[in-house]
Amino acid sequence: MQISRKQSIYQTIDDSSGKKKIWRVAAFDIHLIPESDYGIFYAGDSYIILYTSEKVPGGIIYYWLGNHSTIDEKATAAMFVNKIDENECKGKAMQMRVIQFKEPEHFLKMFGNVLVILKGGVESGFKSPKIALNDFFKRDDTCQMFQIRGRRIVEVNVEPRNLNSNDIFFVKTSNKQGYTWIGKGASQEEQETALKIPEIFELIENKQIAEGEEPTAFWYLLGGKEPYAKGERLENPSPEYESRLFHCSNARGKFHVEEIVDFTQQDLESDDVMILDTFDEIYVWLGQNSNIEEKKAALDTVLRYVAADKSGRNEENTNLLVVKQKYEPTTFKAHFGIWDENLWDNELGYDKLKELISRNVDFIHDPKNEPLQVRQMEAEFTKTHPIEVLRAKTDQLPFGVDAANKEKHLSDADFEKAFGMPKTHYEALPKWRQIEHKKRVGLF
């Protein structure tokens, strides 16, 4: 709710038709970009936008941070915001940090209500592996694919599985030609945005095709026909059944659930658990760093949530699924608009990525990480395992094992054999004695 109020304040400032100066961060410095590039951003970069008008004499300085902008680029942007404020606005400007896909209304209107967000960007000052790209409008020799979500035109990988019945997609071919694919559930706003595509991309020809009426040439450009996100809720969206996202965390000392409005993929917190309600299906999303108590509480919350529903939903007619971060099914991703497969790569860390690469692990399609029913997942928390399995490192334990209380996952017989006493005797011991016994048997 705070975000909505903040945006309404910026909507009342003026009509966004004032003057703009835009800098792009590169190599610990900022560089003015030409007006012809205004409204075009790279997800791998950070930008500073100075806006002034008669109604905003002090000016507004936005610093826009792409999802794949590096730490040094973001820090450079923050540093230069203050310098620009002092040099051009005498320290009187309003400063606003803007995250990709979280742009306020005033910001969007500054660029004619359409933003183009491209993949890649200039190299980091620390020479990160991010690929530097040439000017977008010179890339006529390649096929590119864009997802139109609301008032944003975002470059995505050229793959048929990235299609989504709820949106519009544009495939740009060589020689300034392209296809605009209109999903059955695309909104009026998205259709209006799509009308601006020929001008933005300086197209000679643009063929509009409706979902389900694709010519063979279209699928050829995408590398073949594959399943993509579709279904009743995506093809015929209704305000009555809008998707809802809930953030679940015990970071405050007790389990707390809070609804997030106008959500995007960035709202999925790796340290916590999220609940996505799409009406026909309810997903429990497990962040890779969420703790076991949050997971247990979230599963219980979903069961109670459905039981209390007065719309007629219950466990029998509603699919209750659990998905893990980085293993989200297409049906889950479709409700977040633009989905970025690489958004969390930096959070995994170099060592973890190296390990996964060496094991040839496929983050997305590992069949062992398909969604499970909530009741199935609940059983994982009470499942018992041999002591040899429980002696593994924390990140190698079976799902559902409480790393701080591994002994709870031993059967009664295995527990007594390892500890030399029944569980009831162990539980009556003071904490320090329990720890001594766990160290002795290799479970601490």
UniProtKB/TrEMBL annotation:
GO terms for molecular function: actin filament binding; phosphatidylinositol-4,5-bisphosphate binding. This is HP domain-containing protein. Residues 379-444 form the HP domain. CDD domains: gelsolin_S4_like, gelsolin_S6_like. Belongs to the villin/gelsolin family. GO terms for biological process: actin filament severing; actin polymerization or depolymerization; barbed-end actin filament capping. Coiled coil: none annotated. GO terms for cellular component: actin cytoskeleton; cytoplasm. Keywords: Actin capping, Actin-binding, Repeat. It comes from Panagrolaimus davidi. PANTHER family: GELSOLIN, VILLIN. Pfam families: Gelsolin, VHP.
